[in-house]
């Protein structure tokens, strides 16, 4: 049995996947840009017990070394990568040449209906190559509230997102890690696609209410319009690409595409999905 190469290993989902795989007794290779530091360029650490190896989607010369002794691949698209034809698709081709026997790809919910997304292109390529794949299609991450939107919650006691009154069945990235570990280590998951949602569907008013109770201070949901939200991002120096992605995400949210809970995590792992309240308790210090 070979190792599992986890791309994005110092990020939210990649780290969760590596954590779950190490806990399951697998030998994990954490792909990072700076293996000497045991993390990424900003010093973010990788999972203890995993092996750090250098890997750069834009640097094919290092891929062969990264794949040495590896027979399975967890593949995700870093947010900064838009052109998957020049990055992720060649990685898939190299992995198949290397003899990788299972590629688990972190896709996105509803990708099968959204042909313009880079995730759709990656799924299409994996199918075209008849690759041994499994697609994980998660809902909106709870961790976005503790990372991307953390500062406004911590400093302004406000959630400022253009979701209107829509519901979202948020998912904890740690649950994605648990699912990935099962998919990699159990038979029966090849050529499958799993839509992963939490078991609760919450509005952002309800999210603010849970955070208020956990943090012991009032957190409000501002309900900006899409144009107001984009204007604030632009004023804070966000790039046009980032703003466009945010517009797409919250257009989907307002259409209630992300509203539907399911029990896929429970079925795949044997334990329920993490509730938002438990997530807030676990990450309380990040907003204080």
From TrEMBL:
Residues 3-225 form the NmrA-like domain. SUPFAM superfamilies: NAD(P)-binding Rossmann-fold domains. InterPro entries: Ergot_Alk_Oxidoreductase, NAD(P)-bd_dom_sf, NmrA-like. This is SDR family oxidoreductase.
């Amino acid at each position: 049995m070979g190792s599992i190469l986890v791309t994005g290993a110092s990020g939210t989902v990649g780290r969760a996947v590596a954590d779950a795989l190490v806990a399951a007794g697998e030998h994990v290779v954490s792909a990072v840009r700076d293996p000497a530091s045991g993390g990424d360029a900003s010093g973010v650490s990788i999972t203890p017990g995993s092996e750090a190896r250098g890997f750069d989607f834009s640097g094919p010369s290092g891929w062969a070394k990264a794949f040495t002794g590896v027979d399975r691949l967890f593949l995700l698209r870093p947010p900064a990568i838009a052109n998957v034809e020049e990055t992720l698709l060649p990685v898939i081709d190299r992995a198949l040449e290397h003899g990788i026997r299972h590629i688990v790809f972190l896709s996105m919910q509803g990708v099968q209906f959204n042909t313009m997304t880079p995730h759709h292109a990656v799924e299409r390529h994996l199918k075209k190559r008849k690759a041994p794949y499994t697609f994980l299609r998660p809902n909106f991450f709870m961790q976005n509230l503790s990372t991307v939107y953390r500062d406004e919650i911590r400093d302004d006691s406000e959630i400022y997102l253009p979701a209107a009154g829509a519901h979202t069945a948020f998912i904890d990235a740690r649950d994605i890690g648990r699912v990935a570990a099962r998919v990699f280590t159990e038979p029966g998951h090849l050529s499958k696609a799993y839509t992963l949602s939490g078991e609760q569907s919450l509005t952002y008013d309800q999210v603010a209410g849970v955070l208020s109770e956990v943090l012991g201070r009032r957190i409000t949901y501002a309900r900006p319009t899409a144009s107001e939200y984009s204007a604030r991002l632009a004023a804070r120096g966000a790039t046009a690409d980032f703003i466009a992605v945010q517009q797409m995400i919250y257009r989907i949210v307002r259409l209630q595409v992300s509203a539907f809970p399911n029990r896929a995590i429970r079925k795949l792992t044997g334990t329920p999905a993490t509730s938002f309240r438990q997530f807030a308790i676990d990450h309380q210090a990040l907003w204080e």
